[in-house]
């Protein structure tokens, strides 16, 4: 069946999650971060994801903003920058205005011009996602921004992927689901979506029961995969 709907994970897929640490490291007053920002960014993202999985399997859901702060606090301690309250606050502020990857606006515009339905499906809370979408200026090329907060559990729970069908009324194999997280793309493959893993870092494939249909270095060719 032809693709009618293109759905994207947000953080790490459309929005550069390392941008907050990278930008803060270049600002006055945060010299201690200058040589540590890549390590901090990696720790922050990994702990953020790990905490969503743990909360999902233990039925202890929390707003993604709380999870994001918990992950940052762990990361700051891991790089011996705990206790730097101004740095912590600056990193959190920057997370609300993450930069989109360079190819994102044109890619989404091409999908909309080709008649595709487009959406975000993310662990992020609605206020966080709205802030990122507005900061990136891509609201006019998205039909919706879907958050796990409406079902109260994080990805890759099946109820999260159900949100796409509930919103758009499409068959599972009409959806091209795109994520930078291998486990997310794999989970969506198991659900029945056509999937693309944006593997910007060249990581190994996750050892899971399902694999993505496509593996890409960036989002440039998404319109082509959608059949445009």
Please outline what is shown here.
The chain has 228 residues and is of the alpha/beta class.
Describe the structure.
It contains 9 helices and 6 strands, in the order E-H-H-H-H-H-E-H-E-H-E-H-E-E-H. The chain is an alpha/beta fold. It folds into 2 domains: 5-15 and 99-225, Rossmann fold, CATH 3.40.50.1000; 19-95, Putative phosphatase, domain 2 (DNA polymerase, domain 1, Orthogonal Bundle), CATH 1.10.150. It has a 6-stranded parallel β-sheet with strand order 3-2-1-4-5-6, with helices on both faces. Strand 2 (117-122), helix 6 (126-136) and strand 3 form a beta-alpha-beta unit. The mean pLDDT is 97.
Number of strands: 6
CATH fold type of the largest domain: Rossmann fold
CATH H-tier superfamily of the largest domain = HAD superfamily/HAD-like
**Parts with pLDDT < 50 across at least 5 consecutive residues:** none
Distance between the termini: 14 Å
Number of helices: 9
The CATH class of the largest domain turns out to be Alpha Beta
Average predicted local confidence, pLDDT: 97
Our Rg estimate from Cα atoms comes to: 17 Å
What best-fitting shape do the alpha-carbon axes yield?
globular
The CATH architecture name of the largest domain reads 3-Layer(aba) Sandwich
Order of helices and strands: EHHHHHEHEHEHEEH
Strand order of the largest sheet: 3-2-1-4-5-6
Topology:
Blueprint: E1 5-8, H1 19-25, H2 37-57, H3 64-78, H4 85-95, H5 104-113, E2 117-122, H6 126-136, E3 144-147, H7 158-168, E4 175-179, H8 182-191, E5 194-198, E6 214-216, H9 222-225
Parallel strand pairs: 1-2, 1-4, 2-3, 4-5, 5-6
Helix pairs in contact: 1-2, 1-4, 2-3
């Amino acid at each position: 069946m032809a693709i009618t709907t293109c759905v994207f994970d947000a953080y790490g897929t459309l929005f550069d999650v390392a941008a907050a640490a990278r930008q803060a490291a270049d600002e006055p007053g945060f010299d201690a971060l200058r040589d540590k920002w890549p390590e901090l960014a990696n720790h922050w993202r990994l702990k953020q994801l790990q905490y969503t999985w743990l909360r999902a399997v233990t039925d202890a859901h929390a707003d993604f903003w709380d999870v994001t702060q918990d992950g940052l606090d762990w990361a700051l301690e891991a790089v011996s920058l705990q206790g730097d309250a101004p740095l912590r606050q600056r990193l959190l502020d920057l997370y609300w205005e993450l930069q989109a990857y360079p190819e994102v606006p044109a890619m989404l515009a091409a999908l909309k011009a080709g008649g595709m339905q487009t959406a975000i499906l993310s662990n992020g809370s609605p206020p966080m996602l709205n802030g990122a979408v507005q900061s990136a200026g891509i609201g006019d090329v998205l039909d919706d921004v879907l958050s796990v907060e409406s079902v109260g559990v994080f990805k890759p729970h099946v109820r999260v992927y159900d949100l796409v069908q509930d919103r758009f009324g499409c068959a599972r194999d009409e959806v091209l689901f795109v994520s930078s997280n291998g486990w997310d793309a794999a989970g969506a493959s198991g659900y029945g979506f056509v999937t693309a893993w944006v593997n910007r870092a060249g990581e190994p494939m996750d050892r899971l029961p399902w694999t993505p249909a496509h593996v890409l270095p960036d989002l440039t060719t998404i319109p082509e995969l959608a059949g445009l």
